[in-house]
Structure formats: structure tokens, C-alpha cells
Specification:
single chain, 501 residues, mainly alpha
Length: 501
């Protein structure tokens, strides 16, 4: 009878792994009998009763109990799966929060990153490779993290709690660089990362179109009117700035820009006509969705990045392509229009006539004496949300940095700004060197894409705080890691081909 009701098949090869041994012991050996079948039927009846009596809450909890342990294990044991989960959650985090889910999703992101770091050390035990900590980028990242940690003893800091809440978004996120460097090991893995990146960007762009032409959902409308400060920032000249599924219009627009950059880089590699048409279509989708955000700081990123693209890939075809793109952008700048998105785009190229730009310039001029008088700044988290929460009466709490570089200079002083700029310099230098020395055309294209992304984020970090919010904070260091990963894989492919010969 036992043989008649067997529903699990033994797999001798599966026993070689921990998951296989666990499956063999629990599912096959313990439940592969009448008692096991009865237990499973009883559990299914209990689940059904809970769902009937408690509704959706019970269903969500049951799914969570079944899925979460497997996901947690997968993040640790299968690093690329964990990286994909991190990328997806970084994109969807704020969309989930706006649904009214009363759960600390920020802590969930910290947990995913902790599991990836744990998996990194577990894999290092079996396959040690500490070369990820060598090189100028790794050294500068460790110096930068160390300097931020030392800010806890900054004598001019008004609050240690502000440091504690801010260091999470600085140190932990930057440690992901080492995880990406170690765990992304194949060309197929890079393809998967970029495909997922573009797929999520398409979802964000289409949802931005939905917000522009159909409207906000009830949850989004409730959030927009929950605080007068939100309306002051997002309701401009009778038109709402769109944020799609991301945290704010800035994050939305910057992610549309860098997604366009990936497509532009891929155009130099793909040969099939349908792929070129698809990439041109995606560029148009991302660029138009970016306009819905009303973020003027993002409008200059694509033209500026195209200059770097022209320098790195100088050829007659690239010159023609960038020339056509330049003429199109110039037409948008000078052409008269009643569309509020186009009008706001045009004002981005006339900063002297922009009251917002002039106010930021005045604030930066006002804070310069403080920066010069405080070499290590006023303390991590001294400005912005954490400054207002933990030191509301301090001088810096009410100061609006409105710039990633200005925030660094104010909170970590001119010493911190110097370290940060050196970090960005070494990243760009390493990226340019790698691009010109990589031999594999596909890897060379990927290196070009992520190099231009890093360049765009650096420019965008001046008019806005480009690297502090999900998903940009995660995706930026993913791009930085790929700069070195593409070079490492290319070197390995060269060695393999030489050994074959």
C-alpha cells in the first residue's frame, strides 16, 4: 500500500546538497507514508478553515509562512537570486508602502542586505577570494565607510541617534559593492541583472504614464494630501509631478535617465534590426516618462552623458547619432509649447531665470563659512529628516542641502567632501581604463553602460541628492561593481582561451 500512495520520488543526486538532504529526510523519508499524507491533509484543512474565518489576513500569513523561509534560504544559498530580490524590492518598496501596509519595510531591506552579506562570508569560507577587497575603488570605499563610522565621535555633532539612523543607509548599502563584486561571476549573470533593471524600468515608466493620463490611485492621492509639504514640492503650476512606483519624482526621473543610458550603450552592440527598434522605443518611453516627473535636474543628465559617450565611442556613426539626438533636444529647448512638462524641461536650461536654482545658490553661499570652519562637518545625519527629528533646534536641522555634494560637505566637512570626490574620481578612472582594455565586445558594451550610469549619477548628485534613496542607492553601487566585474570576466575569458591554445 505504501508504494501505491507514494507521491515523492527519491533522488540520489539531490542528497549531495544541504537542501537535497533536508528534502530527502523530511519530505521523502518522514512524509512518504500514510501518516505523512494524513498530516498534510490535516494541515490543508486547518489552512482552509483559517482562510474562511479570517479572510485575506490568514491567507497572507500562511503564504508568508510557506514562502518566507524558502526566500531567506535562497538569498543566502543562491546569491544571484538574492541580488534579484534586492533589486526588485528596492524598486517596489515605496509602492508597497503606499498601499498602507503597516510594516517596517526599510528593516526588510536591511535584512535582505544582511543576508547577502552573510551569504558572502559563507561562500568565502568554501571558495575564498579576497581580491574583491583589492584595487583603488575597494580601498576608497573602505576609507569612506571608516570615515563615516568615525563621525560618531564628532565633537560638533548635535545627536548620536541621527548618526545611528544615517549610517545604515551609508555603510550597509556601500557594502553591497563587495557582495556584487564577488557574487556576479558570469556574462549570463550580467545579462540577467541588466534585463531585470530594464524590465523594472519599463514597469515604472508605464505606471508613470498611468499617473499622467489616468490619475493617481486612492492610496497615492491620500498620501499626496497627507502633508502640506508634499503638495508644496509636487504640485507645480497646477500640475502634479509624477513619481510612478518610486519614492519621489527625483528618484523616478533619475532611474528613467540611467535606463535610457543602458539602451543607448546596447545600441552599439546589438545587430538585429528588431532589437535596435526595441531599444529606440525604450529610450523614447523612458525619456517621455522622465518629463512627467518635472525634475529639472534630470533633464541635463542625458545630454551631458552623451558628451562622454561621444568621447568614449567616437566614430562617424556615433557622431551622427549624437548629432541627431542633440538637434532633437535643442528643438525641445527652443520650441514654443503649452505642455507643462515641456515648459518645465525648457527652464532646466535657463537656470539664471529659475527662482528655485537661485535660492539653492544662495543657501550654498550662506553655508560655505560653516563648512570651512568645520573640517569634519556637523555630524552624519545633521541635516534633513534625522536632523529635524533628533536635533530640531540645531543650526543645521533646518538647512536644506538640496544636493548630495552639499550634504556631504555640511555633515562631513571639507575633509569628507575630499574623500568622497576622490572615491568618485577613482571609480571613473577605473571605469575608463577598463573600458579601453576589455577585449570582449559584449563585456565592453556593459562596461560602457555602467560607466555612463556612474557619470550621470555624479552629475545628478549636484542639483539633487541622487544616491540616498532606493533604488538609486543600490543600483549605483551595482553599476560601480560591474565596472570591475566586466574586466575580471574578460581577463578570465582571455586566460581560458590561451589555455585552450
Amino acid at each position: 500500500m505504501e508504494k501505491d500512495i507514494q507521491i515523492f520520488v527519491k533522488d540520489k543526486n539531490a542528497r549531495d546538497t544541504f537542501w537535497g538532504r533536508l528534502k530527502q529526510w523530511f519530505w521523502v523519508e518522514k512524509l512518504n507514508n500514510p501518516v505523512g499524507i494524513a498530516v498534510l491533509l490535516l494541515i490543508s484543512l486547518i489552512f482552509g478553515w483559517l482562510i474562511v474565518n479570517m479572510g485575506m489576513i490568514a491567507g497572507v500569513l500562511i503564504l508568508g509562512a510557506l514562502i518566507v523561509p524558502a526566500v531567506l534560504y535562497g538569498i543566502i544559498a543562491f546569491p544571484m537570486f538574492g541580488i534579484f530580490v534586492l533589486m526588485i524590492m528596492a524598486y517596489l518598496l515605496f509602492a508597497i508602502m503606499r498601499l498602507g501596509l503597516n510594516f517596517p519595510l526599510g528593516t526588510v531591506m536591511d535584512g535582505i542586505q544582511f543576508l547577502l552579506i552573510l551569504g558572502f562570508f559563507i561562500h568565502q569560507k568554501t571558495k575564498p577570494d579576497w581580491k574583491v577587497f583589492s584595487g583603488p575603488i575597494s580601498l576608497m570605499i573602505m576609507i569612506w565607510i571608516g570615515f563615516n563610522i568615525l563621525e560618531v565621535i564628532n565633537p560638533t555633532a548635535e545627536s548620536r541617534l541621527a548618526w545611528l539612523y544615517t549610517i545604515r543607509s551609508v555603510a550597509v548599502v556601500m557594502l553591497m559593492y563587495f557582495v556584487f563584486m564577488y557574487q556576479i561571476k558570469t556574462v549570463a549573470a550580467i545579462r540577467g541583472v541588466l534585463l531585470l533593471w530594464l524590465g523594472l524600468a519599463v514597469i515604472a515608466a508605464l505606471y508613470g504614464y498611468k499617473q499622467e493620463y489616468i490619475g493617481f490611485s486612492d492610496a497615492e492621492d491620500g498620501w499626496l494630501h497627507s502633508d502640506p509639504n508634499i503638495a508644496n514640492l509636487l504640485f507645480i503650476n497646477g500640475h502634479w509631478r509624477k513619481f510612478s512606483i518610486l519614492s519621489d519624482p527625483v528618484a523616478f526621473s533619475y532611474n528613467m535617465v540611467v535606463s535610457s543610458i543602458i539602451c543607448i550603450a546596447l545600441l552599439t552592440y546589438v545587430k538585429q534590426i528588431w532589437k535596435k527598434v526595441l531599444l529606440f522605443g525604450l529610450i523614447g518611453l523612458f525619456f517621455s516618462a522622465m518629463l512627467f516627473s518635472g525634475t529639472r535636474g534630470a533633464y541635463v543628465l542625458l545630454p551631458a552623458t552623451m558628451v562622454l559617450f561621444l568621447i568614449l565611442r567616437f566614430s562617424s556613426k556615433v557622431l551622427i547619432f549624437t548629432g541627431i539626438a542633440g538637434v532633437f533636444i535643442l528643438f525641445l529647448i527652443v520650441a514654443p509649447s503649452s505642455n507643462p512638462n515641456i515648459v518645465r524641461f525648457q527652464t532646466a536650461f535657463q537656470p539664471s531665470n529659475d527662482d528655485s536654482f537661485n535660492l539653492r545658490a544662495q543657501n550654498q553661499k550662506r553655508i560655505q563659512p560653516y563648512i570651512l570652519a568645520h573640517p569634519i562637518g556637523g555630524g552624519l545625519g545633521a541635516t534633513g529628516t534625522w536632523g529635524e527629528r533628533f536635533a530640531p533646534h540645531s543650526y543645521l536641522a533646518k538647512f536644506p542641502p538640496d544636493s548630495g555634494y552639499v550634504r556631504v560637505a555640511v555633515e562631513l566637512g571639507w575633509v569628507g567632501l575630499l574623500i568622497f570626490c576622490c572615491l568618485m574620481f577613482f571609480i571613473m578612472r577605473e571605469g575608463i581604463n577598463n573600458y579601453y582594455t576589455i577585449r570582449n565586445p559584449e563585456l565592453k558594451t556593459y562596461c560602457l553602460a555602467v560607466l555612463m550610469i556612474v557619470f550621470a549619477y555624479n552629475i545628478g548628485n549636484y542639483p539633487q541628492e541622487a544616491l540616498v534613496q532606493f533604488p538609486s542607492s543600490i543600483y549605483f553601487y551595482l553599476a560601480v561593481a560591474l565596472i570591475n566585474v566586466t574586466k575580471r570576466i574578460d581577463d578570465n575569458l582571455l586566460k581560458a582561451s590561451q589555455q585552450v591554445k
